[in-house]
Specification:
16 helices; Rossmann fold; 51% helix; five-stranded antiparallel β-sheet; Beta-Lactamase; alpha/beta; five-stranded parallel β-sheet; 22% strand
Length: 505
Amino acid sequence: MAQAQPNTKNQLNVLVIEDSEDDALLLVGCFKRAGYTLDFRRVENAAATRDALLNGRWDAVLSDHSMPGFNALAALELMQGLQLDLPFIIVSGVIDEETAIAAMRAGAHDYLSKDRLDRLVPAVEREIREARHRAERRAALDSVQENEARFRALVSNIPGMVFQLQRSAQGDSRFLYVNEGSSPLLGRSPDSLLADARLFFEGVLAEDRAALDDALADSAANLVQANWDGRILDASGELKWINLRAAPRRAANGEVSWEGIVSNITQSKQAENELRESRAQLAELSSHLEAAKEEERERIARDIHDELGGTLVAIKIETSLLASKLPGDPLQLRKRVRAIEGLIDEAISTAGRVARELRPGILKDFGLAAAIECQADDFSQRVGLGFDTTGIKHDIDPDEKTSLALFRIFQEALTNVAKHAHATSVRIRMYMDGDDLLLEIADNGRGISAQDINKPKSFGLRNIRERMLGLGGSLELATSSPQGTRVILRAPFRRGTAVRAGATE
C-alpha cells in the first residue's frame, strides 16, 4: 500500500483535483502564505487523476466536490482502489451536509468550504501527521506479523511442545502459549491446555510430580533454568518419558513465567535402561567367569601341590637314597646327583610359587594384608623390585569376595609395573577412608600418560576398572611424587566373617 511521502520541512507535494484554475491557485496561495514551498499538480478528470496518483509522490490530495463528469467521491474511490493512504480533503464551494457526511463515511478525512480556507493549512498538517502515524503503525504491525510468522515457522519445526507458562504469586498455573507439538506428544490440543493447565500437571505420574514441583519452585525462587525428567500419561493412557526445560522471568507483581520446551525422551530412556540392564548382565557374567576362573585355578593349584609337588618330593627322596648307596667315592657321580637334587629343589620351589599364585592359601588363612605382603616378597625376589609395605594396616579384614578381587588386581598391577613402569621401588598402602577400603600401589617409574590410559588396547587397566565396578568401587590413576604412577583402588568395606589365623579381634 502506498504511503504519504516524507518531505523536507516547509515543502509539500499536493495533488489538486479542480476544474477551476483560479480556485486551484487560491488553494496554493494559502500554503505559500503559511510559509510552504508547494509542488502541486492540477487535474480535473478520472484519467488524469489516476495517472497523477500512479506516477506522483503526494503528501495530500485536495478535491473539489463537483466537476463536469467527475466528483470527489469518485476520486476518493479511485484512490482507495489503488490502495493509497493519502490525506483526502474535500474543498468545495457547494456541498450539502448529507453529502459531506457520506464522503467522510466513505473515507474522506475532512471537508472545507471555499469561503473558509483559513482551516485549510491546519487541516492538511493534521492529516499529514495522522497519515504518517498510520504508516508507522502499519510498519510496526507488519514487522510484528513477520516476526510472528517466523516464530511460528521456527516453532513448528521444533520436535516437542513449546510453551509459555505463568504461575501467579498464589501458585496458580496457566499456559499463555502452547504450540501444535502438544498434540503428538500429549494427545492434547493447544486450546485444551490453554483452557486448563491441570491437564498437563495431572498427567504427570504421582511419584514424579513432587520432583517437577521442586524443579519449578527452585527455578522460580532463584531464577535458574528448570530441568526435569519424568513420566507422564498422554490422553490415550500411554506412558511416556519427557524432559522439561524452561527459562524463568519474574514480573513486577511477583508472577513468574517460563518459556521452554517439553521433549519426548522415551526412546533414550529405554535405551538407557537397556544399557543399564546389559551392563548388569555383563557384570554378572564377568563375576561368574571370575568365580569359575578361581575354581579352575584352585583345582590346578591343588593338582600342582598335591600331585606334582608330591611326585617331586618322592623323586628327591629316591635320589637321596640312591646317592647314599653309591659304592666308594665316585666324585663325578655324586656331583651329578647333587645337581639333580638342586634341579628338583628348584622345581619344588617353582611348583609351590605357582600354586600360591593360583590359589593364595595365605589369603584364606591370614587375610588380605598378609597375602599382599607375601606376594610382594615373592615378586621382589623374582624381578628385583624394592617394596615398602609399612603402610599396610593389618587390622583390616574385608570379606572373601573383596579380598580375592583386590588380591588379583594387586597381582595384575605388579605385572604392569614390571612390564611398563621401569621402576625400582613400589610403595603399598592399605587403609580405611570412612566406609571405604583403599589400596594404593605407587611406583617410581616413568609414569603414565593420558594417551596410555586411553589406548584402545589398554585391556589391563580396563579389566581392573571393570573388576572394581563389580565391587561397587572405583579405580583412580594419579601421578606419584616426584615421579611414577599411583594406582588407587577404592571399594566399599564389608567385614569378613571368618576368623583368620593370628587375626586381631
